[in-house]
Design a protein that fits this description.
With 213 residues, the protein is an all-alpha fold. It has nine helices and no strands.
Length: 213
């Protein structure tokens, strides 16, 4: 393995690992309300979107916490790859129930298919090119996350006011946290994790608001 790993202090690693282990625990706890939502809607595509979303939460938080808990260098390199791949999965996974349960039109499905394509390309790039395009990858994450601007009108017409605000605040938390991700200072990566956790929690409740549509 020739890929270089970022060096974090033991305290940073522990805080980063624990913050996203909290995400795993919350995702497991969130399975029940998500399943109740899927049953209440009773729509096949929406149920598939909910399942994909839940699995993407587990994948992202699980991979991230494992990466920071891991001590073995070889396993840590692999875990880091999966960690970054899982970010693509979570972005697309978060859109899946919104686009299949709230928007449900051709524009929404085009956005969803585009995100799936970018996710597959991003994962392939991470596997074959490691971190050669790291900052481009960050830009792609942000662009994918804010793809909702192309269907803003549809979201305004279908989500509740509270749901929209939660979705927006979640996006702001994710994007604001990027500052701590790109600046390499002690504990900044752990702060990035907290912003990600906050964004995921906010958007989880945005998705639950689909019940009211």
């Amino acid at each position: 393995m020739s890929e270089k790993l970022k060096i974090y202090t033991p305290r940073e690693e522990l805080l980063s690992a624990l913050s996203h282990l909290t995400g795993v625990i919350l995702a497991v706890a969130g399975a029940f309300p998500l399943w109740q939502l899927a049953l209440a809607k009773g729509e096949t595509y929406f149920t598939a979107g909910i399942i994909f979303y839940w699995l993407s939460l587990l994948a992202m938080f699980g991979a991230s916490s494992f990466y920071h808990f891991c001590k073995d260098k070889w396993r840590k390199v692999l875990a880091r790859k999966f960690d970054h791949c899982a970010i693509y999965l979570l972005i697309t996974g978060t859109y899946a129930p919104l686009l299949t349960g709230a928007v449900k039109n051709s524009a929404g499905y085009i956005i969803l298919l585009s995100l799936v394509a970018l996710t597959l390309l991003g994962i392939a790039g991470k596997i074959f090119f490691a971190n050669k395009f790291h900052y481009l990858e960050v830009i792609i994450y942000i662009a994918m996350g804010w793809a909702c601007v192309f269907i803003a009108k549809d979201l305004l017409n279908t989500l509740t006011k509270d749901g929209l605000l939660l979705l927006l605040y979640g996006g702001i938390a994710y994007t604001g946290g990027v500052v701590f991700y790109v600046i390499r200072r002690e504990f900044f990566h752990a702060l990035w994790h907290i912003f990600v956790l906050a964004g995921a929690i906010l958007q989880f409740f945005a998705i639950l608001s689909i019940r009211n549509i």
